[in-house]
Every structure is written in structure tokens, then in C-alpha cells.
Specification:
This protein has about 425 residues and is α+β, with helices and mostly antiparallel strands. Among the domains are: about 170 residues, no CATH class; about 70 residues, no CATH class. The chain has 15 helices and 12 strands. Strands 1, 2, 3, 4, 5, 6, 7, 8, 9, 10, 11 and 12 form a 12-stranded mixed sheet that branches. Strand 7, helix 8 and strand 8 form a beta-alpha-beta unit. Helix 6 packs parallel to helix 12.
């Protein structure tokens, strides 16, 4: 893999800074911290997964008259924690983060790294799902949603997240999310489907020519969502459930299905069956294509037990040639849960931690974490120096822990310089000479 200068850490950090610098600052002229410094500080905290980063760098500055926030992230003056939260709460997430995601996307396309994500020629799989990242029975704001049954009500913040995925690639490419929250002028509670309608409009505005297949769970398998997807010249793959899609279930009874076979990851036989052009909903006359798969599990007595893998619908015509690919794409819906949400919750990103609560503060910190995660994914995809660093560690979490410790206690001229320090120390420790 060739080194791509426009995708290394310094170049990406400069891009983030340039986009932050374009945000209008409506504060008084005698403001103490530049808005760009505050936003870069928020990004830096999440990049190194250190909520205490600012405090450590202030101490380093006092002792050495230099700090890693300046050398690595180009922060000229470190804000106070309270001041940073107040300023970040005043920033609109769409203005701050959407241009960055769009630019990163374009750079991946320009660097040819994006092509490997094609599931069909010119078609990319876009997983979409909702995630709750804040919950409290007491703390709330004007953007909070109210969830739970009577007597068990709680407040929360949720986001609709999308990510470009491929069944055979561990790294995912997150895109700009859509906040699920109380909308101006709407007395009804916001929900995942309403958020999706806004999400797809904005995504298509950013990427009007990109061929996409929306990959979602059974909640999305409705006529309004399908029409919205077709309005944007996109395709879909949705999981379906008998209880939620009774017309489809009844129509499948007694129909002879087309069939092909494949091999599962456990080397068992997969049976894939499908029916094209079948009615999904009687009321709307919506037609779709249906696919199901079972895995034959060998038993001790020599027989096979059929275990359902799942049932899906798609507007892509299913054939012998593409049935296996459609099944792989459908099952890749779990990538947004396993490779995205699970990492954000459990691999040091602490997406559910309350970094401060306010109408914009919660969602902005969610976006700082998501942006850091996106940059880390790009490092793993494209950066040769980071690949050498990654090879020094068995667990990725160990790498981030060492990086967090080093940046808090030692000074470096830049991020790449710290990576080289880590690589050289690993090589020295494991040298047999």
C-alpha cells in the first residue's frame, strides 16, 4: 500500500483545523480563547482517549514552556475545562462536523482506498442504525428524548449513525450522523425513522453520485422508507420478521423458491433461497424481492439441523450469480454494531460517558468521539507508519493506552514523532543483538 500524504495524521489534522476555522464566532471581541483552539482541544481529548488531557498539557506547559496540544494539534492556547464546555455547547454540530466528514470521504475516494468497499461494481453498502449515548433519570435538556414506560421514564440522547462497510473489511467508514432529538416546530417525539428521512436527504446532498445500498434492520422495511430511498436513486437490503411483515409472510406460503448453496464461515453448508417480485404490503402494493438462508449444522447421528440465518428483502433482483453476495451484504449489517458501536462503547472511546450536558454539548462530544474514531480507522486503512506501529501491539487497546500515557508525560514535536518513538522502543526492547 502506497503512502498517501493527504491521509496522514498531520494532513488530516490540518483539514480539521481549516474546517473549524470557517465556523462563525459570534462571541464578544474580548474572548479569551479562539474557537478553533477550543474545538481542536475537544478533538484532541477524544483522539488520545484522555478526558484529562488538557490538565496534563497545562502542567507540561508550566514546567517546560511547551506542550503536545500545541505541537501535535496546533492549539495555541489551552482552554479551561469549564470554558471549553460552554463554548462547545454553543456550536452547531452540522456546521462544525459535516464539512469534515465530507472532505475525509473525498480524500479516501481520491486515494483509491474507497474502491475496495464496493459490494457490487459502483455500489457501496451503507449500514444505518440508531444508538443511545446518554441516559439519565434526572439530568435533561431541551434536546433530550423521553423514553421508558410509565413510572420508569428516563431522559436520553440518541443518534442515527451510518457507516460504509464491507463484509470482508474490519475497518468501517463512519459518515455524518443525524441527531434524534426534539425538532423545532414539531410537537411529536422524534424517532429513528424520522431521523432516517433527514439523514438520507443530507447524505445524498453530500454524495449525490455515490451508488449506495442502504442496509438496515426490520424497522425500516416499510413503504415510506423504500420510497424515500428510491427517491434518492439508492437500493436497499432490509431484514424482515414474520410478525412485522404478515402480508409478505402469507404470500410466501406455498411458493416454490429458487435455490443455491454456499459454505459458511464454520465450513457448514448454507442453503440460500429467494423469490423475486413478491408483494410486501397489500395496502400499498409495494413489490420487493425476498431472500432467506439456513445453515445446516452436522449432528452426531449424521443428520443436519437447519438453523435459520435470517430473512431479508431487497430491490436488487436476485439471481444465481448474486445471491451469495446479497446474503454477505445483508449479514454485514452487524458491522455497524460490532465494528462501530461496540468499539465506541468498549474500546476506550467511552461514547456513553457524560462529558457535560447541554442542548448541543452532548451531541458535539459524540461527534468529537466519532471523528477521532474515523481518523483512527483511516490510519488503519492507509498509513504505513501506523501499520508499523500497529504491528508492535497485539491488542489495539494496548496501543491507545501507551499513546495516552506518553502524550501526558513526554513531549514530542508531532504525532508521527511519537509513533516513531514507540516503534523504536519496541524494536530496542525486542532486539536480540
Amino acid at each position: 500500500m502506497h503512502f498517501k500524504k493527504h491521509l496522514n495524521f498531520k494532513s488530516l489534522r490540518e483539514t480539521i483545523q481549516e474546517k473549524f476555522a470557517l465556523i462563525p464566532d459570534t462571541r464578544a471581541a474580548n474572548k479569551q480563547n479562539k474557537l478553533t483552539d477550543v474545538l481542536l482541544s475537544g478533538f484532541a481529548m477524544m483522539y488520545v482517549q484522555s478526558p484529562s488531557l488538557l490538565d496534563f498539557q497545562r502542567k507540561m506547559e508550566a514546567a517546560k514552556q511547551r506542550n503536545n496540544l500545541r505541537s501535535m494539534f496546533n492549539v495555541s492556547q489551552i482552554p479551561t475545562d469549564t470554558g471549553m464546555r460552554k463554548i462547545i455547547d454553543s456550536v452547531d454540530a452540522e456546521t462544525a462536523f459535516r464539512p469534515i466528514h465530507k472532505e475525509i470521504f473525498m480524500r479516501l475516494q481520491r486515494g483509491k482506498h474507497f474502491e475496495q468497499y464496493q459490494i457490487f461494481p459502483g455500489k457501496y453498502l451503507l449500514d444505518v442504525d440508531g444508538m443511545q449515548y446518554f441516559k439519565s433519570h434526572d439530568i435533561n435538556c431541551t434536546k433530550c428524548l423521553t423514553r421508558g414506560k410509565k413510572g420508569q421514564k428516563y431522559y436520553c440522547h440518541q443518534s442515527l449513525q451510518g457507516a460504509i462497510v464491507h463484509p470482508n473489511i474490519r475497518q468501517v467508514i463512519p459518515v455524518m450522523p443525524e441527531e434524534i432529538c426534539a425538532q423545532d416546530g414539531d410537537s411529536k417525539e422524534d424517532c429513528e425513522i424520522k431521523a432516517f428521512m433527514r439523514f438520507i436527504d443530507k447524505f445524498r446532498n453530500d454524495h449525490d453520485k455515490l451508488g449506495i445500498i442502504i442496509n438496515c434492520d426490520a424497522l425500516y422495511a416499510t413503504t415510506p422508507v423504500i420510497k424515500k430511498i428510491h427517491e434518492h436513486k439508492a437500493n436497499y437490503i432490509f431484514r424482515v420478521k414474520d410478525a412485522m411483515h404478515k402480508t409478505l409472510h402469507n404470500n410466501l406460503a406455498g411458493i416454490e423458491k429458487s435455490k443455491t448453496h454456499a459454505t459458511s464461515a464454520k465450513k457448514n453448508k448454507l442453503v440460500i433461497e429467494w423469490v423475486n417480485n413478491i408483494e410486501l404490503y397489500k395496502a400499498t402494493k409495494e413489490m420487493t424481492n425476498y431472500l432467506e438462508a439456513v445453515e445446516l449444522i452436522p449432528q452426531k447421528d449424521g443428520t443436519n439441523e437447519a438453523q435459520y440465518i435470517g430473512k431479508w428483502i431487497t430491490d436488487i433482483k436476485i439471481t444465481d450469480d448474486n445471491a451469495k453476495t446479497i446474503l454477505a451484504a445483508a449479514r454485514a449489517r452487524w458491522h455497524i454494531e460490532n465494528q462501530c458501536f461496540n468499539n465506541l462503547k468498549n474500546q476506550g472511546y467511552n461514547i456513553e460517558h457524560n462529558y457535560g450536558h447541554g442542548p448541543n454539548l452532548c451531541y458535539n462530544f459524540y461527534n468529537f468521539i466519532l471523528l477521532a474514531f474515523a481518523i483512527h480507522q483511516i490510519h488503519q486503512l492507509t498509513d504505513n507508519l501506523f501499520h508499523k506501529l500497529r504491528a508492535c501491539y497485539g491488542r489495539l487497546a494496548s496501543l491507545w493506552n501507551d499513546m495516552k500515557a506518553l502524550i501526558n508525560y513526554l513531549y514530542f514535536d508531532g504525532m508521527e514523532e511519537m509513533w516513531l518513538y514507540m516503534i523504536n522502543n519496541y524494536n530496542s526492547a525486542n532486539s536480540t543483538g
